[in-house]
Write a structure and sequence with these properties.
Blueprint: E1 15-23, H1 30-49, H2 54-66, E2 87-93, E3 99-105, H3 111-121, E4 126-128, H4 129-138, H5 146-149, H6 152-162, H7 170-174, E5 184-189, E6 195-201, E7 222-224, E8 229-235, H8 237-243, H9 245-254, H10 259-274, E9 278-284, E10 289-293, E11 297-303, E12 309-312
Parallel strand pairs: 3-4
Antiparallel strand pairs: 1-5, 1-11, 2-3, 2-6, 5-6, 7-8, 8-9, 9-10, 11-12
Helix pairs in contact: 1-2, 2-3, 8-10, 9-10
């Protein structure tokens, strides 16, 4: 049993895990992906050590990756079919099951923070498109141009894709093609034992305008419940939506599956039932971590039970 806090609650050792996407990350991008994930984990870990909540920690960690052009979130996000950047993000508090999300959000740098504002300042869970943009502006979030979020090589990639016939985004994740950057996410447990999860993405390359993946859909790409686990997913979102991956993992844990077995079962279904590609990071209510992916690589970082930060791709 850990030390007790001011109100007599048992304190636990905080934990945090982050990911920077699961796909065919090329050799020359490995270092930047690993460094970016490690930097995010370090920031989120500091929040936890300073007594911050799990929600504070996952928001802070994801914000680091949204500002890093290495990843497909915030700055560096993919362009859609008409050359615009549309961002999706979600955040969830496992203590209360409160959640907030935005989808197809344009001209804002920090979609995960807008998602948190939806959670804390409205009676809604999900705002999309123009409504999400109007809310962000009304709440004082920094506005920006598409060009402010655009990385030069993304424009080049978008132009190249326009010349391709039959472009299939699933090849990006399976290893048949390379398209640097991935969805980002974080899960954390704070000293009070509360769990939280957050995920942020620019979606898939050349997506249809208005397309929404699993990241901002509570239960598909993001979920947190103190009774089970916190989960953030990454990959080809359509498959994760069809299987409601994050909530399904939590349900299996609630039914008595060990977290590793729950994740293995859902990843098996993802591959065999819908041909899905991607990965998940999971932190259960006991602080046990699971990372699984069926893509060639997955960028991630985590803090172990001794407070040591690790990273890998």
């Amino acid at each position: 049993m850990g030390p007790r806090g001011k109100q007599g609650a048992v304190m636990v050792r905080p934990r945090i895990v982050v990911h920077g996407g699961a796909w065919d990350i090329p050799e020359d991008e490995l270092d930047t992906h690993e460094r970016g994930c490690r930097a995010a984990a370090e920031v989120g870990w500091k929040v936890l050590l300073d007594g911050g909540s799990a929600v504070d920690a996952v928001e802070a960690a994801v914000r680091v990756m949204e500002d890093d052009p290495t990843f497909d979130a915030g700055v560096g996000a993919f362009l859609n079919a008409v050359g615009e950047v549309e961002l999706d993000a979600a955040i969830m508090d496992g203590a209360t099951l409160a959640a907030g999300a935005v989808a197809a959000l344009r001209h804002v740098r920090a979609p995960v923070s807008v998602a948190r504002a939806v959670m804390e300042r409205t009676q809604h869970v999900l705002l999309v498109g123009e409504g999400a943009a109007l809310f962000a502006e009304a709440q004082g979030f920094e506005q920006c141009r598409t060009s402010d979020l655009l990385v030069g090589r993304e424009l080049e990639r978008w132009r190249a894709i326009q010349q391709q016939r039959g472009f299939d985004v699933r090849t990006v994740f399976s290893g048949q093609k390379s398209a640097p950057r991935g969805t980002v996410g974080a899960v954390a447990m704070d000293a009070r034992g509360n769990l939280a999860a957050a995920t942020s993405t620019g979606g898939t390359p050349n997506k249809m305008p208005g397309r929404v993946g699993d990241s901002p859909l509570i239960g598909a790409g993001t979920y947190a419940d103190n009774n089970t686990a916190a989960i953030s997913a990454t990959g080809w979102g359509e498959g994760f939506i069809r299987l409601v991956v994050a909530k399904t993992i939590c349900d299996l844990i609630e039914f008595g599956f060990p977290p590793e077995q729950a994740v293995e079962e859902v990843m098996r279904r993802l591959e065999t039932r819908v041909g899905g590609s991607g990965g998940v990071i999971v932190l259960d209510r006991a602080g046990r971590m699971v990372i699984r992916y069926n893509t060639p690589r997955m960028a991630r970082a985590w803090v172990d039970g001794q407070g040591e930060i690790h990273s890998a791709v």
